[in-house]
Every structure is written in structure tokens, then in C-alpha cells.
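Predict structure. Chain length: 411.
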Amino acid sequence: MNAATIHARKYRSVLLIDDDPVQIAILEAYLQSVGAEKVHEANNGREALSKLEQLGDAIDLILCDLKMPEMDGIEFLRHASEAGFSGPIGILSGVDNFLIESAHKLAKIHKLNVLGSLKKPVSREGLDDLLFSEAPDESDTTPQAGFPIDRGILHDAIERHDIVPHFQPKVCTKTGMIVGAEALARWRHPTLGMISPGSFIPLAELCDLAMPLTQSIVSQVIDAATQCHNAGLDLKFSFNVAPQLLSNLQLLDTFLQRLKLAGLETNRFVVEVTETGILKADAATMEILARLRIKDVGISIDDFGTGFANVETLRQFPYSELKIDQSFIRGATHDAFCKASVEASVNLAKQLDLKMVAEGVETVDQWDMVSNYGIDEVQGFLISAALPVDDFIAFCRENAGGISLNSSAAA
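Prediction complete.
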């Protein structure tokens, strides 16, 4: 990376939070070398909050350690979010990689602008990459430059049913047969084309539109399931529900009424609980989940092993299915941690008699791995991307005899 690239983005005022004076000195020297005009120091999170309150918008960048006295970096990140800090943050620490990654994810949950994380001892090259590389926008909140997505635009799109479900096939590892599909929301914009959910799901949750969006998607999923049933396809359909909606009895009652009117069996549906928040063990949530299971609706814990999806959650709620996160599946063939995570998830699911689903399967090696582990179903690009309902029906008919990994789908 050349000097011109580095200085294209300048951090004039930086707050360093670290209780190690040697690290502070190293970082200060580095920052001055790349054009920082003022470097503020704090030995712990509490002192950093005080400086942040004093300096406010004058801070262009925060570099934060995690393990510090009085207030650690994890707690500081929460307080920084509550204080409304919107500038970039880099996480630097000597703790193990798992904790660093956890802090990174937590900062994202707090809606902080996280550049990334580095394990100590830091290097100039690592700092260059952290602070000056043009990383992709993980929030993906604007699908195209100049196109603003606000509450009114999203509300109108939901009302017009411009946001529709596409269906990613699920395949039985033992037989190769298509046994169901996950419904994934897509925004069918009249001028921009198809917009991915990362562009609008966070806004829906922020602007109290998650409920009408979910109701619209569930209604369309039921219509699609009816269409598939009429086409002679015997399939299960899963759809995502954010944890904060699972205390809303209206959503459950509407869903069950729609199924009854459609004449569809309840055991053909699975509610996938997403990891966007904590599933509360309150009376309403427990009633809804219990009633779903009594009605033979499946309940899946989505993205197991990440975010809020953990063993304690499995203990508290009546899940019927465990879905292993795609990041572990993709890494398990070459990364020891990912492999151990998959093995632990499989062992836990077997002990609890839960169906297992692997998402994000992209290669034949990954298929072979999950099959050898005894995982029941898979989904991913090896089989197919998510498809509009008509294309999904056509795909199911074309592969009525089962998915062949020697077909173009495996290419």
C-alpha cells in the first residue's frame, strides 16, 4: 500500500484506549506517521468515556484494547454506542482470537462502525490494512449510490408486496431428494432490480416495520406452499422470525388461521428464530413456542454457534431443529476451530434428538463432510441459490429423482 493510498483517508484526532504504555507509544508513533494531528490517551474504558464526553465529534477514530482495569473494552463498546459515537473503531488486543471476534460481533450488534480487529503485537502492515483498506460495507444499507432507503419507502414496498420470498432448496443428505426450502426475503425494486435483505432488514427492525414485513412474507410463503402443494410437491417450508416478534400473539394466531384457510398441514412449516436479538423467556414467548410445537410446527435455532444462538437457548426453549451456521460449514474442511464447532454442534443435536441442517454448502467436499457427520439436510449454492416460486417449482420437477452432484448445480 503506497503513501498516497494511506493518506487518502486521514484521521486527524484519535483516541487510544490501552493500559500498556508501550503499546500507546507504538500506536502514537504510527498514527503521527500517517498524519494524525492529535492523539488522546486513556488507560481504561471509564477514562475513555470521560474523554469522549469532552471531545465528542472531535474524535475521528478510536483504537480500543479489550483487557483493561476498571472498565474493559467490551463494556466500553456498549457505552460508546449509548453515547452515540458514530466514528470508526478498531479493536486491538492480546486476548485469544475467539474473544476478539466476539467483541467485533458485539460491536456490530451495538451498531458501531467497526473497521476490524487486530491481535497484538500489532504491525505497521496490519494497522495499514485495518485503517486504510477499502473494506466492503457489511451493513449493506444502500443498494446503490444515491438511492436513499427510509421508513416511508420501505413501508410502501411492504404494502405493495414488492418484497417477496425466494426459496432455497433443502436436500436430504441420505437420499439427495429435495425435501423443503427456506424462504429468504428479496426486494423486487422497479428500477434497481433485486435488493438483498441486508439492505432493508436492519432498517425494518429499527423503524418498527419488522412485524408488517414478517406478516407479508409469511402470507406469501403460505401462498407459495399452496402453489407447490397443488403442483404435487410434498415439501416443508421454513421462514425467519426475529426474536422480538415471538412474543406477539397476533402473529401466531394470524399464521395458524391462514394455514387453516389454506388447508395446509402445520407440520409442513418451520419457524427459524434468527440471531438478531435475545429470545426472551417471558410468558408470551413461551406460550407461542409451546403452541407452535403442539401444532407440530417446527422451531429451528438459526445460525447456531454465533451471536445469541447458544447452548443456554437450546436449554430454555422447545427447539426441534438446529441449523449450523454457514461460516462454520465453509471453514470446517480446512480450519480446526470451525471443524470443532461443527462436531460439537452435531454431538449436541444428537444428544437432544434435534434435526440438523447445514447451511452454506458450496462444494462437494463440504457435502461429503456434513453427510459423514450425519447431518440430515443441507442447503447452499452447491444445490441452488434462492429462487422465485415458479423457478423453484421448475427446479424441483427437474430434480425429482434427486440432486446429482455431478450436475451443473455442483459446478
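Summary: The chain has a mean pLDDT of 85.
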